[in-house]
């Protein structure tokens, strides 16, 4: 199919209009709609004036002849030539107006799609905000709970930073602030702080259920509610004897289990209704801190001095006790010999 000059002009104008900024494009679209309306109104008025100026009889006869011809040759005309749409006729005579009207209609559809997408995103954000809302949490519990996770978060961030310092010192000879040995020494000092604080928090979370049972919140449940307060410290404190990675993983699992137990307690009325979401937020912060610590320590496994296992620590303790006993026996024998 051969491209007419009007088609080329219209395509060029489409590209030109799309390249304009947003504000000029909207004004051109409004102008196009106005011009197309004026064009159609002017054509209608011209047709009415032509009919009114002609003789009525001649007009009637001409109209009758046209009707007869149309009835006789309608099928043939439909086969020989395709129908011309009004938009095509307008494009042939007014390419600028056609391009503007076409862009105006497409822009309106895109604007409607953008509005629908924005409305959907706003509704989803509102649902998420309502789901994770802490509006029902008492302010004292919220502030103290958030303050309680700060030491855990701080030790985690320090672990990540010191791991970076150790890797930098191993690669470049010196860290950003500390030397490699200083960073490694500080890392070994932080490890028991983070694990010990985690054990304290786990014990506290278990003790909450003892307080709920004593207060009779939601009824009396006896050993079933006391069990959480017993299991939590029983699992938490032995982690102090584990290697750091195993201790962190064990505490992560313990925090997750306690959150599941607290969420069920809030859902069944054994705890306040806000306690489940409150515990979720705090557990999320603690869990993210543990994961960050594990990732940071994973980056220095080949650099940091390998720590002793539990077996090595027990053997070292037995050796020290045996050595102290031998020294005590030697002092006793020397005292006996001196007295004789």
UniProtKB/TrEMBL annotation:
One Pfam family recorded for the sequence: DUF3429
InterPro entries: DUF3429
Transmembrane segments: 195-214, 226-249, 277-296
Transmembrane helix keyword on record: yes
Protein keywords: Membrane, Transmembrane, Transmembrane helix
Keyword Coiled coil: no
Protein name per the record: Transmembrane protein 69
């Amino acid at each position: 199919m051969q491209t007419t000059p009007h088609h080329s002009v219209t395509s060029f104008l489409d590209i030109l209009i799309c390249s304009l900024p947003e504000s000029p494009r909207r004004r051109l679209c409004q102008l196009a709609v106005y011009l197309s309306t004026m064009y159609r109104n002017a054509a209608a008025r011209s047709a009415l004036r032509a009919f009114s100026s002609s003789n009525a009889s001649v007009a009637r006869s001409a109209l009758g002849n046209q009707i007869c011809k149309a009835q006789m040759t309608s099928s043939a005309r439909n086969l020989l030539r395709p129908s011309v749409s009004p938009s095509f006729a307008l494009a042939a005579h007014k390419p600028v107006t056609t391009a503007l009207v076409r862009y105006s209609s497409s822009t309106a559809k895109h604007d409607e799609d953008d509005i629908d997408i924005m409305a959907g995103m706003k509704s989803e954000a509102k649902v998420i905000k309502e789901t994770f809302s802490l509006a029902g949490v008492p302010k004292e519990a919220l502030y103290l709970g958030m303050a309680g996770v700060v030491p855990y978060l701080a030790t985690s961030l320090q672990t990540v930073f010191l791991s970076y310092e150790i890797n930098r010192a191993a690669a470049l000879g010196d860290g950003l602030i500390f030397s490699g040995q200083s960073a490694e020494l500080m890392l070994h000092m932080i490890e028991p702080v983070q694990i010990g604080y985690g054990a304290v928090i786990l014990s506290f979370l278990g003790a909450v259920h003892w307080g709920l049972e004593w207060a009779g919140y939601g009824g009396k449940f006896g050993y079933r509610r006391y069990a959480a307060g017993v299991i939590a410290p029983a699992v938490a404190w032995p982690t102090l004897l584990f290697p750091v990675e195993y201790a962190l993983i064990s505490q992560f699992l313990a925090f997750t289990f306690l959150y599941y137990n607290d969420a069920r307690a809030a859902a069944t009325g054994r705890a306040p209704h806000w306690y489940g979401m409150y515990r979720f937020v705090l557990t999320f912060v603690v869990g993210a801190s543990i994961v960050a610590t594990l990732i940071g320590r994973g980056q220095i496994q080949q650099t940091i001095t390998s720590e002793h296992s539990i077996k090595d620590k027990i053997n070292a303790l037995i050796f020290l006790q045996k050595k102290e006993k031998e020294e005590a026996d030697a002092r006793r024998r020397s005292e006996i010999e001196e007295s004789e």
